[in-house]
Amino acid sequence: MKIKPLAAGKYYPDNKSELLNLFKELKSPPNSSDSRLIIVPHAGFEFIREISIKTYSALNDTAENVIIFAPATYNLVYGTVTSDAEAFVTPFGKIAIKPYDTEINNKIFASETALTVQLPFVKYFYPKATLTPIIYGCEDYKNIAKIIENEIDKSLIIISSNLSRFLPEREALKLDDQTSRMIERKQTEDFDNELADGAVGICGAIEFAKKHNLNFIRTGYTNSAKTNGDTSNVVGYSGWYLA
Question: Which DSSP category does 91 fall into?
């Protein structure tokens, strides 16, 4: 069984040459970090391409496996689920799946774009790596922190999350600044889904960072209004790497 995400052709081009051109238009900056964990947004490539490429470029140069933590945004999930399918299909080729030891639910993975929007980035930067996809719903962030603790020496970690959603731009900017400062201060108290749809994954990363005295370095910030001009209904996007 191979999973072809619904995001292909909608959130990013389903044509290899067209998608490759979008990466080549924005030259990846030289790797300036040896990070093993990043927080990146999920949306259409026109909104997040630049900030995502910059953030992925901060990761360690090599990886045999990549783990993506993403919130369930279209399906009801309790705890965490993974896939035991053979591979994800991307315009750049297949990504072999390495399942985690948790509930298997192959059905939801095609539609959960918070995870599948990351696939072209993973395949572009790590063409030979396997992928462990983890989608969470109602879950304790400390359980995510435990998985990170157990796996980060063997895998790179991607936390997929947007910031504010569907607010007027002035309110979004204020709230996103507050959220960014909470992440950089490693504050989990009062950090909830109103601040970021991937709050559970982010708080898990914060818990791990606090334990190991690591810091979140921001790679940039943007929002949907900067691309589509609609300041009445804004989604916020930012990136961090752990160092």
Answer: T
The answer to whether 158 and 198 have CB atoms below 8 angstroms apart is: no
pLDDT bucket at 36, cuts 50 / 70 / 90: very high
CA dist 147 and 157 (Å) reads: 10
What is the C-alpha to C-alpha distance for residues 85 and 142, in angstroms, rounded to an integer? 27
- The CATH number that applies at residue 102 is 3.40.830.10
Question: What strand order describes the sheet that includes 2-3?
Answer: 2-3, 87-90, 93-96
Rounded Cα distance between 220 and 52, Å, is 9
As a whole number, mean pLDDT of residues 74-86 equals 94
Q: By the 8 A CB rule, do 109 and 85 touch?
A: yes
Q: What domain range includes position 166?
A: 2-242
Residue 143: partners with Cβ closer than 8 Å, 6 or more residues away = 79, 80, 204
Among residues 229, 235, 232, which one has the least CA distance to residue 175?
A: 235
| Total length of the chain | 243
Report the C-alpha gap between 25 and 231 in whole angstroms.
26
Distance CA 209, CA 231 (A): 34
Measured CA to CA, the distance from residue 33 to residue 173 in angstroms comes to 28
Q: What's residue 32's pLDDT?
A: 63
